[in-house]
TrEMBL record:
It comes from Rosa chinensis. One of its GO terms (molecular function) is zinc ion binding. Residues 319-369 form the RING-type domain. Pathway: Protein modification; protein ubiquitination. InterPro entries: Ankyrin_rpt, Ankyrin_rpt-contain_sf, RING_XB3-like, Znf_RING, Znf_RING/FYVE/PHD, Znf_RING_CS. This is RING-type E3 ubiquitin transferase. It catalyses: S-ubiquitinyl-[E2 ubiquitin-conjugating enzyme]-L-cysteine + [acceptor protein]-L-lysine = [E2 ubiquitin-conjugating enzyme]-L-cysteine + N(6)-ubiquitinyl-[acceptor protein]-L-lysine. It comes from the Eukaryota.
Length: 510
């Protein structure tokens, strides 16, 4: 990886430049020795690409990738630059990594988390939108679900058809203990993330497993509604119930979501979660963060090059939005022309309600407000691909175009929900580490009285784990009150410390 004695000093200079965002220093070092782009630190094996992605320095990320950095390189924890960008919500960096065909289906070594888990646990809905871009075709939303809706007469056929889709497999891919991205978004009360995941066929009935390295007081067999009840967000519970979640689901401890809400002091949820409740659940529209044209513009950007056409001598071909680059794409329908960069930015950032512009998931045209479903490349556009470093990692669409009769070992294994015995061992990590260390959960306060009685597990491993102190902010009535003291967080996740991840993150955050 370039850690020889001759280049370690220059490599550390490049790491410092990537961490600090010093583009001039990074460019000078890479001009002298392009192999420094593959350098990795001795401690956490973080590459300069990891540092630049975690800090959000998009220009340095592009510079490293153009000089041969491996877009799918892993650190000591098995985390890629894509995971770091999703952890901290740097969607522009994520956009650049996608243009260089990063593998979004990879999971880390510790707990099997994908980039989708990192984005959901911190509530970065734009990152979720970009991560699933290669799985959502640029077709009308109704046509995308027509095959599933055609088999609604037989529930078993509809469920089987949904499980076979690549999008459903990716969105519902479980991490350690069967925790999905929907579980994490529900636990932390990120309504926008929950709404988008549900529109992307997230399984509202997915339950956690009986085994794994995580320990929590909710227990195995818990659904996203159990996690939402623990988090205490009323709106999140409402949308889960509106999308088919059951109030009568018992986990392995025999607890209903109502029992979990009572144990964690979420008393404002009791009228909603009571089995005999007659509370009216509001209807929720589709997510404003659906972006149907994103796949089409990503493919055009990969073919033409993201930086192509920075100048144009023909005034008629200049993009009317930025007035800098030439137009290489046109919106289907209204035929208005844009440059690749403006079209990609529009598809990545727009969150205007779909019913105002056209079909669900369409993006409003900046000129006529017509709903854009896909972009097409204009005739005469240059065919210039980004320089992609040679690596063993496969591109994201490998799941979309694989032969169903011949399963590739690089693709994700078959996942059948709610069946512990059918889950491949590749999805679970044998290392006993604390998953999702950045999750902030409002838990019970021990100062107000004794904690609720729970089963004591692994009494010999009761090491102290510092709880996360919740900040006291004014919350709306919809979200409910948020507790300030969280002195029982050491009881929720595994008590064993994760020195691996702490070492990698300490390098990046130094």
């Amino acid at each position: 990886m370039g850690n020889s004695f001759g280049c370690s000093a220059s490599g550390e200079r490049l790491v410092s430049a990537a961490r600090d965002g010093d583009v001039i220093e990074a460019k000078m070092l890479l001009d002298c020795n392009p192999c420094l782009a593959k350098y990795s630190t001795f401690g956490g094996l973080n590459s300069p690409l990891h540092f630049a992605a975690a800090k959000g320095h998009n220009e340095i990320v592009s510079l490293l990738l153009e000089n041969g950095a491996d877009v799918n390189s892993r650190n000591y924890c098995g985390q890629t630059a894509l995971m770091q960008a999703c952890r901290y919500g740097h969607w522009e960096v994520l956009q650049t990594l996608l243009l260089f065909r990063c593998n979004v289906t990879r999971a880390d070594y510790l707990t099997g988390r994908t980039a989708l888990h990192f984005a959901a646990v911190n509530g970065h809905v734009r990152c979720i939108r970009l991560v699933v871009a290669d799985f959502v075709p640029s077709v009308p939303y109704e046509a995308m679900n027509s095959q599933i809706d055609s088999d609604r007469g037989d529930g078993a056929n509809a469920t089987s058809k949904n499980e076979q889709s690549a999008l459903s497999k990716f969105v519902n891919k479980p991490a350690d203990c069967g925790i999905t991205a929907l579980h994490m978004a529900a636990l932390n009360g990120y309504f926008d993330c929950i709404q988008l995941l549900l529109d992307l066929h997230a399984n509202v009935a997915a339950v956690t497993f009986h085994y794994g390295t995580s320990m929590d007081l909710i227990g195995a067999g818990s659904s996203p509604l159990h996690y939402a009840a623990c988090g205490g967000n009323l709106k999140c519970c409402q949308i889960l119930l509106a999308r088919g979640a059951s109030k009568m689901t018992l986990n392995c401890n025999g607890w209903l979501p109502l029992d979990v809400a009572r144990m964690w002091g979420r008393h404002w949820l009791e009228p909603l979660l009571a089995p005999n409740s007659d509370t009216i659940i509001p209807a929720f529209p589709l997510s404003n963060y659906l972006s149907l044209p994103l796949m089409s513009i990503l493919n055009v950007a990969r073919e033409c090059g993201f930086k192509s056409g920075t100048t144009s001598t023909d005034e008629a071909d200049t993009c009317a939005v930025c007035l800098e680059r030439a137009c290489f794409v046109a919106a289907e329908g209204c035929k208005h022309e844009l440059c690749v960069r403006c079209a990609l930015y529009l598809c990545s950032t727009s969150n205007i309600p779909a019913e105002m512009v056209g079909p669900p998931g369409s993006i409003p045209c900046p000129f006529c407000r017509h709903g854009i479903i896909s972009f097409v490349k204009l005739p005469g556009s240059p065919a210039k691909e980004n320089k992609i470093p040679m690596s063993l990692g496969l591109c994201t669409p490998c799941m979309l175009h694989r032969d169903p009769h011949r399963e590739s070992p690089a693709c994700a294994p078959e996942i059948k929900k709610n069946r512990v015995a059918s889950v491949s061992s590749e999805l679970l990590c044998p290392v006993t580490c604390s998953p999702f260390p950045s999750v902030a959960i409002p838990l019970c306060t021990c100062n107000d009285g004794p904690c609720p009685p729970f089963e004591s597990r692994n009494a010999e491993t009761q090491d102290e784990f510092p709880g996360s102190q919740a900040t006291s902010t004014d919350q709306s009535k919809m979200e409910g009150p948020r507790l300030e003291k969280t002195s029982c967080s050491n009881m929720f996740w595994s008590r064993r410390s994760c020195s691996r991840e702490h070492q990698c993150n300490a390098e990046i955050n130094a």
